[in-house]
């Protein structure tokens, strides 16, 4: 039995603690803040409740595996999990209004044909099919196994070019190239692909074509909602840790202690806690000025909206209002400025647990922004932007709360730089969470815990 200290009680730390304790190790988690969950936070006020981080769950199989491996229970016995259907509604600047089905690529294709004309769904489907090739080639090395020693080549099958284009230099194929060459530069389809990139802190002009794996995963495996908000998932994993005997120390900012070239514990406020192994979910270095795929837009602004009046019948859970001008939005992000009329995600869950009564509604706006910005007044600007696109919530607004997260780690992708390996160069020190392999995102931090627990093994 090893004595293990985990720095950080975010989702990666909780998942690792529950797995390692189940394997028979003695685990202590040190968390600098006063609670667990990390970016999966919760804000409550006047009977309203909000997720302050991600609001939807992709690849629930990661947490299903965690539930089974640490307690032999299906995830659905720990939380109430439901598919989001329709998956999303998209409002485009030309007035197009497209509703996409959840986990139905055929349904997505039909909706795109109806909105943009015959052939649009086929073009999109062809790109997503190539994203499937990426998934099949990279699932094991980039999601299920320790980080490869060498960079992973982008396996995206670039279609053969025709005519004079055959003589142009091929070079590296980016997500922007996919939009231009394979989606024909169609503004609606390009905006749809760009939204996937921005949501994951990626710049389409720098992200490899392998990023098409993101729409493939979502449209193939679906998007899910946890009743009570995603904070309920953090609660469930925390309870599992308690059942497995994990010790928690909150308000305890810990740093690894290295002696004779090896980690021997952590220091917390002048106190040393001895350990055989230390797992850290802290950023191993300063947050880069540009994300792992070249974009400075690694931050996020979240606006929590308390609304009077019941949630209207037939309201879609997730609505995306696309940028008025996609190129201007990307140019602003690259310059480190707030976009004037950006791509906005609006979440409106139908969940009685999040409101004081049936005559109120809670909603959340999310926008990708540069890390160093002043969010003052931006919430009012976003509400005006939504109103101009037919979603006017201003008259119903009781109050709002604005949160700015300066840096959100992007996922590791084939064809681009990879996050640091889980087993660090310092003996006894392991890296977990969004800053480590396989990168950012709720599913990936759960995978980082699984990979690391596998590297350590049973007691």
UniProtKB/TrEMBL annotation:
Matching Pfam families, A to Z?
Amino_oxidase
Q: Where is the Amine oxidase domain?
A: 11-454
The protein in question is named: Phytoene dehydrogenase-like protein
Supply the source organism for this entry: Kitasatospora paracochleata
Q: What is the lineage of its organism?
A: Bacteria, Bacillati, Actinomycetota, Actinomycetes, Kitasatosporales
